[in-house]
Design a protein that fits this description.
Radius of gyration: 27 Å
Distance between the termini: 67 Å
Number of strands: 21
Helix content: 25-40%
Strand order of the largest sheet: 2-1-3-4-5-6-7
Shape: globular
Oligomer: single chain
Largest sheet: 7 strands, mixed
Number of helices: 21
Mean pLDDT: 92
Low-confidence stretches: 632-640
């Protein structure tokens, strides 16, 4: 009989990828393990569907439990390993309890970034061992020498013995990444239906030189010195990936563009794209230096249709938060010349922020967000999840950190920071209301042109307007989303997808509400009546544009829309991140021909998809009708 091993993995809800992490563990054992022919390593990959776990548990009880028990009878140690991340920790801890209840003598092992604070799990969960740091060698030695008496001799383990936490010697880092067998040798690149996975996460380097207090890379668990897989190895693997038909390659690197080898990797990727047409997209975490090497790579990838955005991870601009996060002197903070440089090169640029970092506060965060709206066409904002093993996690009492379990993305609940020494809980919660508002109004493409105009003009605050609009929409659609009330801020945050779909389903009601809030906002923030009236006139026209270009339900279709101002000029100017002139809003009939992809509630359910599936300008059809659907001010007040 073979020794039975089960290695479990579950991706986040937006990432249906091949099981590269557990695949790498299996591949390493197949090459370096003592008894690969006497060991049966099964990869159990739930992809991004945690709902499949219950059926798998039933099947394991009916089919696999007997195998585990028979192995024990024959002196073989069954092992179940879990690759644990924030998005799957809750589900996998439940699975551990269920498996341990069925088979108390099975060895439960966990690895991955979420369990590196081993004491938080070993004393309270159905968990026997935690792999500390890199796992390939450690798991291989454990499979070959699983007896408890042998654990002290295996580097890189944490376990409990006689009520005390035991940490074995630290495992030295892998310095030759090419010596690690490719995960592709141990996995299928096709899912259970025989189709290629949509995407794959691939690691071309390990290590991170930065010590960001909120980040698991900053713990040094994977080392501070960056090490690279050779370009030749990368080329072999990437060819295998695209030959299987996988469309999206997302790197697990911490600072792509920081290493000399990264230029050659980009060359390889572009050559493969030219030859095969794949991948269709590429994503990574970019070098924090943003130097000439990164710029060269970005230009090349964009020229080959591999890079929709260059992503700048600012995270925060508040001085105290930057200092406490150890990001004060990063080149990324000098974002304006980087953004201008990318704009001149025709590269769409995006930035990333985190709300809730220690040292931040809502007033400064919103002030910085308003400024960024005038510079970056795309902004991502994430709530800060307190991650085990990070500096902020270890200093949570000192920094007075308060958290709530929140389903930020998908079903997984993270420990979201809602208060700390620099902002009270009430302010922290209001920050999550801002996140929800930004997700729907900006990322959801409900009023992006209006927000950009206000930011460029500096006429009124932008972030505050988004929150005011969200409160109004919660009231407007409380019957469409039963139980939704603006005062329950975290419930609104978790249910933002439901509200987004309701808002898109009823555009007339939505834009009637938006117009009223925007008009009141202008009156409140502009004391001069003439200036307020002028701004309100422009806001009406901007909201007409937003309404026409917003995501829609239903099928893909063509439409011709009439405006009573120079809509083309306003759009062109705003898309260039420039402020439209007053003359562009003067009376002028404009016809825009649109392609409306539809699909809200079917193809996309999350507001974050709005930026990818909204209406676009199209060439005029050959049989353009004499009349077009007007999007005028009156139409904004029409009932749904």
């Amino acid at each position: 009989m073979q020794q039975p091993i089960w290695l479990l993995s579950l991706d986040s809800d937006t990432f249906p990828a091949a099981p590269m992490t557990t695949g790498g563990l299996k591949a390493y054992y197949q090459v370096h393990g003592k008894q690969p022919n006497q060991t049966d390593i099964q990869l159990v990959h739930f992809v991004n569907e945690p709902e499949r776990i219950e059926a798998w548990l039933t099947d394991w009880k009916e089919q696999q439990l007997a195998i585990a028990n028979k192995a024990l009878e024959e002196g073989l140690q069954p092992i179940m390993g879990f690759s644990v991340y924030t998005w799957n920790a809750a589900e996998f801890l439940d699975v551990m309890r269920a498996i341990k209840a069925l088979c108390p003598r099975i060895l439960i092992v966990a690895g991955g970034p979420h369990v590196q604070k081993a004491a938080d799990y070993l004393f309270s969960e159905a968990l026997d061992l935690v792999v500390m740091g890199e796992g390939e060698e450690t798991l291989t030695e454990l499979i070959d020498t699983p007896c408890r008496s042998q654990w002290p001799g295996i580097a890189g383990l944490a376990y409990v013995n006689d009520g005390e936490l035991k940490l074995t010697a630290a495992r030295p880092r892998q310095t030759d990444l090419d010596s690690l067998p490719s995960a592709l040798d141990a996995i299928s690149l096709y899912d259970g239906n025989g189709e290629p996975y949509e995407c794959i996460s691939y690691e071309t380097s390990r290590g991170c030189p930065y010590k960001c207090a909120f980040c698991e890379w900053g713990t040094g668990a994977i080392g501070t010195k960056m090490l690279s897989v050779s370009p030749a190895r990368v080329k072999r693997d990437w060819n295998r990936i695209v030959d299987a038909g996988i469309k999206n390659i997302w790197l697990a690197d911490s600072n792509f563009g920081a290493l000399r080898e990264d230029v050659e990797k980009a060359d390889i990727l572009c050559e493969i794209k030219k030859r095969t047409g794949l991948p269709t997209s590429f994503a990574t975490s970019w070098s924090k230096k943003h130097g000439s090497r990164s710029r060269q790579i970005v230009l090349q990838l964009h020229a080959n249709d591999l890079l929709p955005h260059y992503h700048l991870a600012l995270q925060t601009l508040t001085p105290l938060a930057l200092e406490l996060s150890h990001r004060k002197n990063m080149d990324a903070n000098k974002y304006e010349p980087i953004a201008r440089d990318m704009a001149r090169a025709g590269i769409p640029i995006a930035c990333e922020l985190i709300w809730g970092l220690v040292g931040d506060n809502l007033e400064d965060f919103e002030k910085h967000l308003d400024a960024l709206f005038a510079i970056f066409p795309t902004i991502h904002i994430f709530g800060y999840t307190l991650l085990p093993g990070t500096e902020f996690y270890d200093r949570r009492e000192e920094y007075e950190i308060e958290t709530l379990p929140v389903a930020g993305y998908g079903k997984a609940k993270g420990e979201y920071v809602v208060g700390c020494m620099s902002f009270p809980v009430e302010e922290g919660l209001e920050g999550y209301f801002l996140l929800t508002a930004h997700q729907i109004m900006s990322r959801g493409y409900v009023m992006p042109m209006t927000l950009r105009y206000l930011a460029l003009s500096k006429a009124t605050p932008v972030a505050g307007l988004m929150r005011a609009v969200l409160r109004a929409l919660c009231e407007k659609f409380n019957c469409d989303v039963p139980g939704l009330v603006a005062t329950d801020i975290m419930d609104v945050y978790e249910r933002r997808s439901e509200l987004f779909i309701a808002v898109i389903k009823h555009p007339d009601r939505t834009y009637e509400c938006l117009e009223q809030v925007a008009q009141d906002w202008a009156d409140t923030h502009i004391s001069n009546a003439t200036d307020a009236a002028s701004l309100k006139h422009r806001l009406q026209r901007l909201l007409a544009l937003d309404k026409a270009f917003a995501p829609r339900c239903g099928p893909t279709r063509q439409d011709t829309v009439q405006f009573d101002f120079d809509a083309d000029a306003v759009l062109d100017t705003l898309e260039n991140m420039e402020l439209p002139t007053p003359e562009m809003f003067a009376a002028k009939t404009t016809m825009l021909h649109l392609t409306i992809p539809g699909g809200v509630g079917e193809l996309i359910n999350d507001p974050d998809g709005g930026v990818w599936i909204h209406a676009e300008r199209a060439d005029p059809p050959d049989d353009t009708p004499d009349t077009a659907q007007p999007v005028e001010i009156a139409s904004l007040a029409a009932g749904a």
